[in-house]
Amino acid sequence: MDPLTFEKPGYSFSLVNIDCLPHSTHFNVLMALDAPIESLLPYLVACLPACTYVHGSGVVQLMDRGHIVAIYPDRLTITDVPDTTGAEALCAEYFALIERVQRELPRLTPVLRRQRSISVLDIYRRLPQTNCGLCLLPTCFAFAAAVFRGESVIGACKPVESTPSDFGELIEILQANGYQTP
Ligand code: SF4
Q1: Whose CA is nearest to atom 6 of ligand 1?
Q2: What is the DSSP secondary-structure string of 106-137?
């Protein structure tokens, strides 16, 4: 067995190195479910207010504390996890959510379509827009796009990091959409 694959009741998970980032010490997690959850997806969406889902697409996507999470009928993928302990905790959390949704199914109203409530422009408009480059990206717009995709965190913007209280609205909308904030 792959030494980085762990078996749990109901699922297994493995850690995959992020090859495109040679110096990264983080992993992506692949969580394989023993039983498929295709019919459950619209009910999971009902419990995940900041996700994106279109019925029939077969995938629920969301940002969760800086991780990009994709929920498929047979598996979940979770990006940017630091170690096995972090992966184990996240997988346990998502499996507990699946079990809760299964238990509460009769009381839940399925949601067939949900769009993310944040865009790159929403982030960009609330940044300093000075293009100072201190985040190591050439423009604030490039940084906003990187944050939106989960490739950077808002704290990498130096003005936000040094005076977060000046960016309260930005931090609030990011938190509401599951992004990691300072
Ligand atoms: S550090 Fe902040 S203000 Fe400077 S370019 Fe990056 S996003 Fe813009």
Answers
A1: 135
A2: GGPPP-SEE--S--HHHHHHTS------TTSS
